[in-house]
Every structure is written in structure tokens, then in C-alpha cells.
């Protein structure tokens, strides 16, 4: 299992691409593709045929995955983007921390 600097539920900022500068919450991680789905970011239009779940069909807007290299975690203390480090806590467990504020994340 690979470790990522971002996890499901984190608030992130988009660094590159059409949605550059937007922030959102990570909905889902796609570890095999090194991508993540972020709420309200990288919206694309998908054409859908009518089906049992969507009898009308039509064009729907949905989030598309973004590569993890284009995302940066938002520091919970200062609400600014920060790099993420790993260190052992007092119990010897590896935890993520913000490099800007040195605060442990979750």
C-alpha cells in the first residue's frame, strides 16, 4: 500500500489546470491512477443515454479525477496550502503534519 500526502476528507487546493486556485474536499481517492475526486472542482459534462436509473438521459455535470501532483493540502490552522511531512508521535505511530505550522493533521 502506498502512502499519499492527501487522504479522503482532506481540504485541498488545486495548483494547476483549468480549476487552478479552487479549493474543495476530497470525495474519493483513486490510488491505482494516483488521482483524486475533489468536490466542486474539475467539472466536466458527460452525455448519458437513458437508463433505468436515469430515464431522461441527457447531459450531466460531474467531477473528474485530478492527479495528486496538482493538489496541495490546506493547513487546518492557517487555511493556506502547505507541504505535508511524516513523523512519529509519542506512541511511535507515523502521523502526517503540516510543514508550515508543525500541527498534526487528523
Question: Can you describe this structure?
Answer:
This protein is mostly beta strands and 106 residues long. The protein has a domain at 11-81: SH3 type barrels. Helices cover 0% and strands 41% of the residues. It has no helices and 9 strands. It has strands at 11-14, 23-30, 35-38, 43-48, 58-63, 66-67, 71-73, 84-88, 94-98. A 5-stranded antiparallel sheet has the order 6-3-2-1-7, with no helix packed on it. β1 (11-14) and β2 (23-30) form a beta hairpin. It is elongated, with a radius of gyration of 17 Å. The relative contact order is 0.20. The model has no long low-confidence stretch (mean pLDDT 93).
CATH topology of the domain at 11-81: SH3 type barrels
CATH architecture of the domain at 11-81: Roll
**Oligomeric description of these chains:** single chain
Tally of strands:
9
Shape descriptor reads: elongated
Annotation field: number of helices: 0
CATH class of the domain at 11-81: Mainly Beta
Largest beta sheet: what is the strand line-up? 6-3-2-1-7
In terms of topology, how is this protein built?
Elements: E1 11-14, E2 23-30, E3 35-38, E4 43-48, E5 58-63, E6 66-67, E7 71-73, E8 84-88, E9 94-98
Antiparallel strand pairs: 1-2, 1-7, 2-3, 3-6, 4-5, 8-9
What's a quick, concise take on this entry?
With 106 residues, the protein is mainly beta. The chain has strands at 11-14, 23-30, 35-38, 43-48, 58-63, 66-67, 71-73, 84-88, 94-98. It has a domain at 11-81: SH3 type barrels.
Amino acid at each position: 500500500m502506498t502512502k499519499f500526502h492527501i487522504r479522503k476528507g482532506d481540504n485541498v487546493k488545486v495548483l494547476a489546470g483549468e480549476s487552478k486556485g479552487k479549493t474543495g474536499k476530497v470525495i474519493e481517492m483513486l490510488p491505482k491512477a494516483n488521482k483524486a475526486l475533489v468536490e466542486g472542482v474539475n467539472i466536466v459534462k458527460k452525455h448519458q443515454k437513458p437508463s433505468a436509473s436515469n430515464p431522461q438521459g441527457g447531459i450531466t455535470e460531474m467531477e473528474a479525477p485530478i492527479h495528486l501532483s496538482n493538489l496541495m493540502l490546506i493547513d487546518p490552522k492557517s487555511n493556506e496550502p502547505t507541504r505535508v511531512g511524516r513523523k512519529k508521535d509519542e506512541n511511535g505511530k507515523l502521523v502526517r503534519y503540516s510543514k508550515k505550522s508543525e500541527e498534526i493533521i487528523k
